[in-house]
Amino acid sequence: MRKVGIGLDIGGTNSVAAAVSEDGKIFKKEIRRTPSKKEPRIIIKSIVDLLRFIKEWSLNKRFEIVGIGLGLPGLIDFTTGVVEILPNFPKMKGFPIIDELKKYFSYKLRYENDASAALLGEYRFGAGKGVDDLICFTLGTGIGGAVLIDGKLLRGPEGFAGELGHITLDPDGPLCGCGNRGCLEASASASAIVRRAKEIISEGKIKTSLSNYLERGEELNASIVAQEANKGDLLAQKVYEEAGKWLGIAIGSLANIFNVHLFLVGGGIANAGDILFNPMKDEAFKRALPGIRDKIEIKKFKLGEDAGIIGASSLVFFND
Ligand SMILES: [Zn+2]
Fold this sequence. Notes:
Blueprint: E1 3-9, E2 14-20, E3 26-33, H1 40-60, E4 64-72, E5 75-76, E6 83-85, H2 97-102, E7 108-113, H3 114-125, E8 134-139, E9 143-149, E10 152-153, H4 185-188, H5 190-203, H6 210-215, H7 222-230, H8 234-258, E11 262-266, H9 274-287, E12 297-300, H10 307-314
Parallel strand pairs: 1-4, 4-7, 8-11, 11-12
Antiparallel strand pairs: 1-2, 2-3, 5-6, 8-9, 9-10
Helix pairs in contact: 3-10, 5-8, 7-8, 8-9
The protein binds zinc ion.
Zinc ion binds next to loops.
């Protein structure tokens, strides 16, 4: 019988579930809205419905379901399975999400932070295949991070390690969602890019095509800024250059700390291309020590937006 793992990548806006083979091939994928601001029981119901949909599909196709692997967007205590913090799910703090899901499914259930799941996807089937030491960033509304050393995820006692988005880079910098100032996330996430673009527009010093969007009453987002930057808009380019520099500063320090060569960058913003990656590479090279800097490689995810779901499903096929 052919085997599948059911992967679930829970997001603040949408959640994705998929039936995935042992070698990382997606057979069926379903995307649904997440009622993230609602009560825990409503969130759990939507997760259970989504998982059941993929379960039924898999059983109808006569697949053997090996288990369910979850990628969770925040901190879940590995010793208890209780939510410490899911930033986009204000009512989930303290909720025993893992015990609750076990009531509905008898399959093996495994979970990781969503950035760790994405790292495992890229390590097992993508741009990091065969590289036992690597670091990932997922750039979205926030910034997720994960660290792999000697082929093992760096977890720490509760599983909270790898929160690279909350490295403090500028003590007096912009306010971060975590309550601190000047975190990487507050300077290089999709939301930071939009905020920064609006700030520079309001200074009025650089002429920009982005003003046209605002005049038409359209909301700016990070992909619009990337699109205009790639068409040659100077303000949009400046915004991406700044974000790339902040990421490069973080990468240079991380290379010094961990002696990791390969850094993988995923999430929507990574599609911006050289306007983001060139300043990132330059800055990482400047900040890393001699002997380390020449070995740094910074690449985009190969599995794109599927890295998380493929990595989450792979949890059920591996025993680490
Ligand atoms: Zn922070």
